Amino acid sequence: MPVSDPNKLMTKADKLTKLSLTRWSADWRNATLLYEEAASLFRVAKKNEKAKEAFEKASKGQEMLSSPWDAAKHMESAAALAKELGNWNEVTDFYRRASELYMECGRPQPASDALAKAARALEDAMPEAAVQMYNDASAILEEDGKEQMAFDLYRAATSVYVKLEKYSDAASSLLQLGLAADKCSATNSQCKAYLGAIIVYLYAHDFKQAEKCYNDCSQVDAFLRSDQNRCARKLLSAYTEGDVEEIKRVVQSSTVSNLDHVVIKLARKLPTGDVSALKTDAGKEEEEPLDENDLT
């Protein structure tokens, strides 16, 4: 039996969807079957551009047939082919559309997964778009009460922010991870995320923000009693003392070695910048300023 010509299948399908004097309504059911068959044949033949177009049309067909699940699946196939072709804007659009279609079916987890796939595909080519996708994917899971499933997405977002040298955003991403962990009582992940955020601020040489972050996180009882808290306290104390050797010693500890890889890499480079200035500032703060009344 001869293999069908996918180009002819596409032409036939297109005709079924166009209205004319003799065709008053589109035959989406048969057209969609033809688009699906053509898409598979093009993909096998490694004709990615044509396969992508066929899957896009098959997706539209399933939408017209009120089958958003199948429409989403075809849209993901089109997105994967767009990735192969390096069409990054289409990767963004197709995966986002797939996510919307999954949400129409009331399926938040595949909707989040579609955005995460887009983010991973875009990390090198469009990191800003990638990080937005990771954050949107996390938001869908959190709204569905599946915070634990968002942990890896927050970690991935943190990693991209660090590559972009957006350290404040990286720290915020870790703090969001800590908050998500708090909601599902994942204490260890929560404490590691908080220490990670403090380290990121120190790497960015923002001691004041690191200190504020430590004080805020220490309001959480689980963190206050943790090894990560003790490690953070030692680290901040070493900074205040301007003790470079102690900073280097603390970042080699097992507590730091158990953090996420991206945070460990930053920690091992501490201290960045001149910490002796912090010691001078701390000394000035300890000195009691003279009151004018003392001079009279």
Automatic annotation (TrEMBL):
<dbReference type="GO" id="GO:0016192">
    <property type="term" value="P:vesicle-mediated transport"/>
</dbReference>
<dbReference type="GO" id="GO:0031201">
    <property type="term" value="C:SNARE complex"/>
</dbReference>
<keyword id="KW-0472">Membrane</keyword>
<keyword id="KW-0931">ER-Golgi transport</keyword>
<feature type="compositionally biased region" description="Acidic residues">
    <location>
        <begin position="284"/>
        <end position="296"/>
    </location>
</feature>
<dbReference type="GO" id="GO:0006886">
    <property type="term" value="P:intracellular protein transport"/>
</dbReference>
<feature type="region of interest" description="Disordered">
    <location>
        <begin position="277"/>
        <end position="296"/>
    </location>
</feature>
<keyword id="KW-0653">Protein transport</keyword>
<dbReference type="Pfam" id="PF14938">
    <property type="entry name" value="SNAP"/>
</dbReference>
<dbReference type="GO" id="GO:0005483">
    <property type="term" value="F:soluble NSF attachment protein activity"/>
</dbReference>
<protein>
    <recommendedName>
        <fullName>Gamma-soluble NSF attachment protein</fullName>
    </recommendedName>
</protein>
<comment type="similarity">
    <text>Belongs to the SNAP family.</text>
</comment>
<dbReference type="InterPro" id="IPR000744">
    <property type="entry name" value="NSF_attach"/>
</dbReference>
<dbReference type="GO" id="GO:0005774">
    <property type="term" value="C:vacuolar membrane"/>
</dbReference>
<keyword id="KW-0813">Transport</keyword>
<dbReference type="GO" id="GO:0019905">
    <property type="term" value="F:syntaxin binding"/>
</dbReference>
<dbReference type="InterPro" id="IPR011990">
    <property type="entry name" value="TPR-like_helical_dom_sf"/>
</dbReference>
